[in-house]
Structure formats: C-alpha cells, structure tokens
Amino acid sequence: MSRRDLIFLTLKGLLAWLVLSCFVFYLGEWLAKGLCPLTKAVMISMAPDLSPSLKLAKSAQSQLDYSIELTAWVLQPIYLNSNHFIPPQTELKSSAHLIHSFVPLVIEGVILLAWPVQCWQQRLLLIGLGLLTAVLVVMATLPAQLLGKLEIYFQDIAVAGQNPRPVPLFLDWMVFCEVGGRWLLAIVAAWLCVQLQRIFLRK
To answer: What pTM did the predictor assign?
Structure first.
C-alpha cells in the first residue's frame, strides 16, 4: 500500500468515525428503543428468575445524552447463600450509559466503511452484514452489562455467608466485556463480515 493510499484510508476511517459517532449521539435514543424488546428477551433467557423492564432516561447535563435503566422484579426467591435470599416482588435497578453501550457498533462500522472494496455490491453487502452483526454484538454485551451490575452486589452478600451461590456466567462475561471484550467483539464481527462478503461474491 502506497503512502497516498494509506493517507486516504486513514481519512476515510476518520470520516466514518465522525459520521457514526454523530449517528449514535443524535439517533441513539431511537436505536435503543428499537432494540429494547430484543434486549429484554435476551435478559429473560439469561435470568429467568427476573422480570425486566427497560426505559431510557435523559442525562441532567445534556438532552441528547441517555442512560438505559433496568428495573427488574424478582419472580421467585433467589438464594445468595445459606442465610440470605432475595424475596419475590423485590425491585432491583441498574443502568448503563447509552453511548458507551453502542461503542462496538461504531468500531465495527468504521472498519467496514473504511475497508477497501472493488465495487458497490461489495460495499452494500458489507453494510448489510455489518448491521446484522452489530445488533448481535450489542445483544451479546448490553444485557450482560445490566444484569452483571446487579449480580456484583449479590455476590458481595453471597460470599459473606456459607455456601455462596455460584457466580453466573453472564457476570464473568460482563467483566470480559468491560476490560476490552466489547471492542474485541466488534473487530471480530467486522473481520467475519469481510470474510463472508468474499465468500458470497467470490472476489
């Protein structure tokens, strides 16, 4: 790759980053509302003892800055250890910053929009595959983040008594995502889209 091509690729990546960042910042509310039913369904499958409800809340500092707030009701007793349990109908709450949750979407989108292609069919296919995999990445990270914040508090109580409950897998997954896993998932998803595009178009 020549120096000119490298500069062009860098500028294209920066432009894609700017466009996608503005998209998430200004249209993130609409996107989050569209994904709420799917997010709720994933959370029910991860924590069947809870009945979740999601809503968006505006930040006090900015009318365009939102957080995703989870309110979950306990359906049946959740035993933390031999001496402690969470009774049914208990209301639990956690939240996640909206823009932070959509960072993987921006990372994957920047890679796919900046990726060099030979024809417009390749670009359209990359965008289509990118939209699908970006939703999958968000669904693989956001529900675990919301539930994991609840579980961290539970574990503090559980380990203080005898026979603490096992650590749920989604808590370990949340920790992985928070230490860089969500960015890694976005990069892997972009790489997968490129490979699928090459298979589909044979170019």
So the answer is: 0.87
